[in-house]
Each structure stands twice: as structure tokens, then as C-alpha cells.
Design a protein that fits this description.
Number of strands: 18
Largest sheet: 6 strands, mixed
CATH architecture of the largest domain: Alpha-Beta Complex
Number of domains: 2
Low-confidence stretches: none
CATH superfamily of the largest domain: Creatinase/methionine aminopeptidase superfamily
CATH topology of the largest domain: Creatine Amidinohydrolase
Strand content: 15-25%
Helix content: 25-40%
Number of helices: 10
Mean pLDDT: 96
Structural class: alpha+beta
Shape: elongated
Distance between the termini: 47 Å
């Protein structure tokens, strides 16, 4: 299928191939974003039972008509629909019995002990096997449809970045600016913010995950603006810096160091290198400027249906040596935070290509003076 729509068949086939490797008859997908990724169902409750030769969606009566309608229109995968009777666990047990499944995998990071026990009671005699990151490993490499969505999302959020000088004004509160940014996100075409917008000014900017307050921005303030939008289910995430002059030389130097570190990390991205090598490019630069201790977080995180997903672009971890692969989409967002002075973070979204990388959020990283 072209980038006009997700290739549901290919996504499901990839999971079905993994069932053979796991030595199981089926897998129960209970994470809603994984259900959405695999078949297009976006309701608030569902279980997806994938066998080696078929796909069964278990959901309740609220969604039965919509599933049939969307599947007929090609808006979601063709699935065998089973409507919940009394409870989801009991209906799952009925499906397992009907399909004659004896070895079934589940998502251990998302299934509680209580839920698993209810499934065991509903399907006695079944052997349950944990399948860590089964769908997440598939989601980390974006397909043509997803890349097209990210490119459109990057172009849209660039319009919001371009509008920031009109939104960030001396005397306005952090909360008022955040409200205006979120309004701008919907006006350009995002369905909703990807997360609560961060506007942090002056001393508040030294807190990496500050939340907007009623503090008014004023002279000498660095203003950190971290925001994102959801387009066709996918999350875009950027950070830009504004300032109310005059700024101290130290504040200007902090911004310039983070900007160079951002550019160094983006330049390092290419297939075959470790994600930690990208992190090191930014971290080494900031360390060389005496800001190593001020960089308190990882350089980036994966983007997709969740605003934080694989890959993690952070310090080297012997147990999680993640290689950059074409199709990965993640943020590059080094930062430096100094109590009493303020903080700086710049963030763009990057696609790994066969030759290197593509910045998906094409907008100036310059400090926006207001």
C-alpha cells in the first residue's frame, strides 16, 4: 500500500511471523496504541488476538458498528469482530477456546498480575508466554505512511514556531502564552496538543519539566517553549527559546552552547551508529563548554503514536545498545540548566535516512528576542 494509508496487512504479517519465533499459537495485544497501530481501531477498550492465520478484535457494543463501517471503508484492517458479552476476560476465554489455542503470548509491560490471573481463569490450561516489546520493536521503524505524516506535522509545527514572536510578549504570563500556543496548534491543523505545553521563564526555565505559572515574563528572562501536536494520531515535539532583552553574556553563552550541541547531535545521526553516539556528540560539546553537569537528561526520545517511545537517545547502556536504523524518528533536544540563571533547551524531530538524517521540523533555532 502507498503512503496514502497504513499497510495493515504488512504490520499484522510481521507480528504473525514473530509468533513462529516465539513458539506460540497467538498473541493477545491489549495496549490500545498497539491495537491502533496494527489494525486501526482507536476506541477506548479492545483486545486484539493475532493467530498465525487470522486476526480477531474483541470490543464492546459501543464500537461494533463503527468497526464494521471502518473496515468496509478501508479505514482499518479487516478483522474478525467478536463483541464482548459480560466481560472482556470471559470473552477472551471464549475466543481462545473457539480458536483452540494452547500457547498464547501477552504484553508483560502492560498486563497487570490481576489481569493475567483473570485470563488464566477464563482460559484454563493455556500456557501464557511474555513477549516483551513485540509490537514496539515493529513500531520503531516508521513506514512510508508514518513518515509522510511526520513530514506534514513538521511543516505544520514550523508555522507555530514562526508565530511565536507574536505570542511571547513582555508582561504576558507563562500560562497565557501556553494557552495561545495550544490554540495555534489546533488552528494550523493538529487535533490536539501532544502533551501539556511547557512555558518556563527566568528562574523557572532552569527546571527541565516546569509547568506554566502565572509568572509574567520580563527583562533579562530566558523563556523556554516546549510544545507538540498530534496529527493523524502521531506526535510532533519541538522546543524553542525566546528572551526578553537585555540578556547577560552568561545567558547568551548558555544558549549558544546548546544550539551548537543540538547541531552536533543532528550532524552525528546516520544509520549504523549507536544512539549513544548521538547523545555523546551533544554531551561532549556541552562538557567542553563547562556545562556537562548542567545537561541533566538524555539527548532525545522516539516519537510515534506515543510522544515518548523507542529509541532512547541517551548515554551508553551495555544492556540496551540501540543502533540507528533508517525509518527511526526521534527528538534531538540537549539542554543546560543553571539555578539562578535559567535553562536552555532546543528540540527538533529527526528521521534517520539511508544516507544520514532529515530534520522533520524545518524552522529557525535562533533565539527569539521580544
Amino acid at each position: 500500500m502507498s503512503s496514502a494509508g497504513p499497510d495493515w496487512q504488512a504490520r499484522l504479517a510481521a507480528i504473525q511471523a514473530e509468533l513462529v519465533n516465539l513458539g506460540v499459537d497467538a498473541v493477545v495485544i491489549s495496549t490500545l496504541h498497539n491495537v491502533l497501530y496494527l489494525c486501526g481501531f482507536g476506541g477506548s477498550a479492545a483486545l486484539l488476538v493475532i493467530t498465525r492465520s487470522g486476526v480477531r478484535l474483541i470490543t464492546d457494543g459501543r464500537y461494533a458498528f463503527a468497526v464494521r463501517q471502518q473496515a468496509a471503508a478501508g479505514a482499518m484492517a479487516s478483522v474478525d469482530l467478536q463483541q464482548v458479552g459480560k466481560r472482556y476476560d470471559l470473552t477472551l476465554g471464549e475466543a481462545i477456546t473457539e480458536l483452540r489455542l494452547s500457547r498464547v503470548a501477552f504484553e508483560p509491560a502492560h498486563v497487570t498480575v490481576a489481569t493475567l490471573r483473570s485470563w488464566e481463569r477464563a482460559a484454563p490450561g493455556v500456557s501464557w508466554t511474555p513477549a516483551d516489546n513485540l509490537v514496539e520493536n515493529a513500531r520503531v521503524i516508521k513506514d512510508a505512511y508514518e513518515i509522510a505524516v511526520f513530514r506534514r506535522g513538521g511543516a505544520l509545527i514550523a508555522k507555530v514556531i514562526e508565530a511565536l514572536p507574536a505570542l511571547v510578549r513582555p508582561g504576558r504570563t507563562e500560562r497565557a502564552i501556553a494557552t495561545e500556543i495550544e490554540r495555534a496548534l489546533t488552528e494550523v491543523g493538529f487535533s490536539r496538543p501532544a502533551f501539556e505545553t511547557i512555558v518556563a521563564s527566568g528562574p523557572n526555565s532552569a527546571l527541565p519539566h516546569a509547568r506554566p505559572t502565572d509568572r509574567s515574563i520580563g527583562p533579562g528572562d530566558l523563556v523556554l517553549l516546549d510544545f507538540g501536536g498530534v496529527l493523524d494520531g502521531y506526535c510532533v515535539d519541538v522546543t524553542r527559546m525566546s528572551a526578553v532583552g537585555p540578556l547577560s553574556d552568561r545567558a547568551i553563552g548558555l544558549f549558544e552552547a546548546v544550539k551548537v550541541a543540538t547541531e552536533a547531535a543532528i550532524s552525528a545521526v546516520r544509520p549504523g551508529i549507536l544512539a549513544s553516539d548521538v547523545d555523546r556528540a551533544a554531551r561532549d560539546l556541552l562538557t567542553s563548554r563547562g556545562l556537562g553537569e548542567a545537561f541533566m537528561h538524555s539527548t532525545g526520545h522516539g516519537l510515534g503514536l506515543d510522544v515518548h517511545e523507542a529509541p532512547r537517545v541517551g548515554r551508553a547502556d551495555p544492556e540496551a545498545r540501540e543502533l540507528m536504523q533508517p525509518g527511526m524518528v526521534f527528538t534531538i533536544e540537549p539542554g543546560a540548566y543553571i539555578e539562578g540563571l535559567g535553562g536552555v533547551r532546543l528540540e527538533d524531530d529527526v528521521l534517520v535516512t539511508t544516507m544520514g538524517s532529515e530534520v522533520l521540523t524545518p524552522a529557525s533555532r535562533d533565539l527569539l528576542f521580544v
